[in-house]
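Class, look over these structure tokens:
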Amino acid sequence: MKINRLREISINVSLIVSALVFLIILGTAGFILEDAKNSVYDDMRLRAGIFSRRAGTSMFPNEDLFSLHFLVNTMVLDKVIKYAMVSDQAGRIRSHSDPDKIGNRDMSRAGVAARNSKIPLTQIFKGSDGLDYYYFSEPVTVGSRRLGTAAVAINSETIKYRLSDTTHNLLIIFLAALGAIGLLLEIRSLMRKMQKSDALKSAMVRTVSHEFNNALTVIDAVIFLLEESDPEKNNASRADLYRVLGYERKSLKNYVKNILSEARMDAGRFKIEKRPLVLHDMVASSVSAIKALMLKKKISYFIDMPSGPSVVNADSEALELVISNLMGNAVKYTPESGRITVSLAPDAQKAGHIKFCIENSGRGIAAADIERIKTEFFRTGEGQAAAEGFGLGLKICNDMLLLHGSSLEVKSEPGKNACFSFSLPAAGS
């Protein structure tokens, strides 16, 4: 639950950041484009300066019209330049990128202002085609003598060619930010749907478990009445039947506990309360509960526990569930005439810790499956062949132990014994 909450927070933060980036892009796009335009204007001013100096060499000492025309037409090879021209001091157009205008007098307001200016000029005017024009002119001089004026013009359409890369990049960034926001919104929507589904699942689990518990309560009462009203209490075979019924009843209760505990952990409502706990008594009680079933399967069992109480700080309900699950699994997956060993002793690897271990003979577990049976609702192929089940127990055991700062350790090989253990700090250590 905490992980899901952190995921939702991270997505919300990412959404806020993406929205801010989107707004920044919108806010700065105009400035970026304006800066790109200014770069084009600076470049045109530089080009006009170079153009005027080269025009001067074509006009002095003798006018070389071929060189002048070549120079003008070379300038308009740049797609951003709409037209280029050179006029003499009287205003006659000596060369123009539009041949029809050569020889005419340039009486346009921009042309007159350029001829009358002793310095480079940048002028903006509205063309006859309705577009904005930017007119860059510079005097053509040789020494102190002025021969004419060189000018290049661009308009709001041709400048788009030079701005296309900037516009394209801004569009990509804009769409990427918009796409990221859309994707994050979709992820958040899916997460919320998943949370609603999980909440519904948890509610269903609680309802089913509650009804299951009610049925088990009735079964408990019936078994008690049968035992109390049995006229043949000394009948050994009937006593075994009662023990088997008791064990199956306890197994069903464990199943219900497993499902409820998993639902509570998913919902983040499972909290442990650590108290001093006599591990020796809990293990002995669990062994006693499965004795009848071990006898039925002709399983030999060995118990190795110290005479002391082996007190640990743990949650009684959680640890009882862990031990009963491990005991029940051992009996379930041990074949007929197999062997189970239960041990409780100081942990040789961790000072001040007590280690519980249960080992059973059987089919064993492949190394690739060990981590999965601890972290997923997973059953190995060997496990499915040996007994029925849902793969709940070991994952819940590991989750419960993680809440205690421990974990379930599994050692096994295919075709060999499987050993399940955990270690907890001794009380007062």
The longest helix spans residues 159-229. Residues 272-425 form a domain with the Heat Shock Protein 90 fold (CATH 3.30.565.10).
